[in-house]
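Sequence only, no structure available. Ideas?
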Amino acid sequence: MNDQHNSGREPYTIAVIGAGPRGTSTLERLLAALRQSAHRGRKIRILVFDPFEPGAGRVWSTSQSRLFLMNTPAVFPTVAPERTQSDEPGLSFEQWRASGGDGAMLSTVETAELASLERGSYPPRALYGRYLRHVFDHVAAALAKLDQVVEVRVLRSEASSLKRADAHYELATQPVDESLPRPQAAGAPETYTADAVVLALGHVPAHLNPAQTAMAEAATNANLRYQGPNVPSDVPWERIQPGETVLVRGLGLNFFDVMIALTVGRGGEFRQVNGGPGRALEYWPSGNEPKIVAASRRGTPYRAKACIDDFIPPSVELKYFDSDLIIQKIAEQRVVNPNATANFEAHVWPLLHRDVLLAYYRTAAERIPGRFALEPQEFMRRLVEVLDAEHQEGARVWLSEAQDLVAEFAPELGFLDVPGLGHPFAGRGFGSAKEYQKTVLEYLEADALSSAGGERDPLKMAIGTLNAGRMEVKNMIAEGLISDDSRLNEVQSWFEPLVEGLSSGPPVQRIEELAALVRASLVEFIGPDPEFGIDTVSAAFTASSPWVDAPSCVAPVLVEAMMPANRVMQTASPLLRQLLDDGLAAPLTMRNAAGEPIQGQGLDVVGDPYRLVDVHGVAHRALFVLGLQLSSVQWGTAIAAQAGASLEGAARTLGDAQDIANELVRLSQN
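Reply:
I predicted one. Tokens follow.
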């Protein structure tokens, strides 16, 4: 083809649905691909659709409360590979922070926030949204300047349907009024034609599950207030009245947003005191706070992250869990059996378990040598000898020998029950609510002290090692190296909740604040394995724990402290619902050990890049999926790409976006 011939052809139209972090990464990688290619195909038109602010999207709205913090340090997240040349519009958040905003026109508040941050700080989510908007704007402007691109149009619209039309797609959208706090429909629906479509939807609304639906309906009948799962910045917190009791179900990351919105968000104040880690704050109430009563299955909140400047402690090493060796073994097996995969409990966990124990006792030997009944170096020599010993694959002999070694030579330290860390009060009864509150407060204070130790703390080093292993397991799942049955019944059933509760917690600031609120009697806990219900006689929600001998808590409000479910068959997204109903999309079918089909959480996709697969098993030629809706073929899709990491590893989201961008360029040249 020559340029004269191409000039008479219609532009190749790319529709990117979703202008949040994943959509921004798609555009940034498309810019890089076009700059690197000798593009002699059709000119390109880019249409970007999102009802929310470009770049920031819904979750990272720049107008949300400054009180809501990120759960990763500034050094970790990015939507673009780290900048290596000054003319690159993309950069990591840490580079943006270090540059003072990269020339962005920041508000006085944003300037002050940015100046206060360090590598290990946890920024306000609204400030991260400002970074995202900065990258989006610069990438869109750079794309528009390319000779190959005839237009970059950003439309504040919600995509409501997508249909095949010969070799194209017909997209129906609903414009929104962007001047309102939350987007609302405005004007007549519009239609667009696209040659290729990228679904970068991010968090989308979801219907309640059956148990939540029953609770919501019963609450309506009893004239109670039920708040289902939602993005914290979208919750109408003002409906909760000062002084009333609010039940909160869930002690994960969203709980801390509930906590802060109903305390400091009501005018209260945390003040520094000289109590040391765990007792560093006291809370001065405003009088506008409700009483928060919280519960979760484990009975305790997620553990705080260690006080270090990195996502994973730099000194962490995986001596036993070598994913490359496992991958090599699988490759050898696939010569005979093309479907060979690894089993997590048999092939992965015993190796990672060894690494976690080694990190724990090695750090203890260095930092608290007095806890050992023999010279610490000798203990470590014997422990490594136990961990190094070869046994039949999957055998647990080494674990018993390690337990015996600790019992004899480190009884004061005790054996680290790694799976048990996920349920610290399992099987333990409490004689009163007061006894349970005291125990949880001690747990919080100890966790804050442990976090303050950073890489000097044995437990946080063990957890850091577990987190490093989690990242390797994520890669193995994305590469299809863990069997469906193992993923369903091992990774998702116990390992994922374990590692989430230990490694994905808040900054230690939030644990210090929670401890202060417990001491101020503004937060209480129900206990493990809580049972929720509605007392129709007293017209109140009820909650109790079988492990705590105390009357049920009653309250007029119940808040589900969690995000909308990331399950495509539970979606309330008009676009996803239409694609599923019309058979243009389908959930991925997984198989258990018996070969029985199990419906996956995410969409069925195939290849690199991920093409959407329809209900008949046929892949779309130019309809791609990126991000959260890939949860059936990836794990941890909500986690941002790690700055500076490999595009095949912890920055896989960027790798996925790059695969899509390269394919879009190729398709436009045909």
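The longest helix spans residues 344-367.
Hope that gets you unstuck.
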